[in-house]
Amino acid sequence: MIREEAWNLLTEYNKEPFHLHHAEVVEGLMRYFAVLEGFADEADFWGVVGLLHDLDFEQYPQEHCAKEQQLMQERGIDPRIIHAVASHGYAIVNDIFPEHRMEKILYAVDELSGLVGATALMLPSKSVADLQIKTLRKKYRQSSFAAGCSREVIARGAELLGWTLDELLEKTLDAMKALGPLANAK
Question: Which of 13, 34, 63, 177 has the lowest CB atom count within 10 Å?
Fold first, then answer.
């Protein structure tokens, strides 16, 4: 599946600017991590997975990670994409374990990207470019801040990757900074 096809599918089921922006941020993060992790030749595939990971969330929030599997199966989409997007719901809404390195990264950075974005909004510039790791660590520890971003999922994601929490925070912040203005909340 090429990006244009993935975007068309995404926008068929998602209209809210917030959801579309989140999809593009996660797409960018996945492409960044593909290169960082030595999978540069798979960056397009990783990006498509990132773009489609919340395909069903806007219209089917109660069936998240289940409905998107059905929608993609009906269209004959690559089973690897289907498994990858569904696995980001592991231990949240399903028991589909993130097996591939790419799936583990998606699992870890999806929630964390929201926390990074929310933390950046607290800055005078509202820019991820100005966010310091110590501020992100502080906001991570403050469970009432961006409470919808599950610290449990973020910590489990770091564990799945074999990274410390600090490594995950730092690498994800670096990745979001590399995305430039796209990383900033809209």
Answer: 63
